[in-house]
Amino acid sequence: MIILGVILLVIGFVAGISILWTIGIILVVIGVILWILGAIGREVGGRRHYW
């Protein structure tokens, strides 16, 4: 999810499409939150790791 967010950020920045930029930021933030929750050992959606 983090990688997809970064790809959308780059495409949105290069192409000048603001909606891709916004979606990319949202995906990166959600990915980082899930990564942190998984790293501290908290189950997310019934899974100990989100990957």
Short description:
With 51 residues, the protein is mainly α. Helices cover 71% and strands 0% of the residues. Helix 1 packs antiparallel against helix 2 (18-39).
Name its key features.
51 residues; single chain; mainly alpha
Give an overview in words.
It is a single chain. With 51 residues, the protein is mostly helical. 71% of the residues lie in helices and 0% in strands. It contains 2 helices and no strands. It starts with a helix and ends in a 12-residue tail after the last helix.
Q: List unreliable stretches of 5+ residues.
A: none
Provide the structure class. mainly alpha
Q: For the CA atoms, what is the radius of gyration?
A: 13 Å
Q: Portion of residues in helices?
A: over 70%
Range of strand content: under 5%
- What form results from the Cα inertia axes? rod-shaped
SSE pattern: HH
Q: Please outline the major beta sheet.
A: none
Average pLDDT score: 84
Beta-strand segment tally: 0
What is the end-to-end distance? 9 Å
Number of helices: 2
List the helices and strands and how they pair.
Blueprint: H1 2-15, H2 18-39
Helix pairs in contact: 1-2
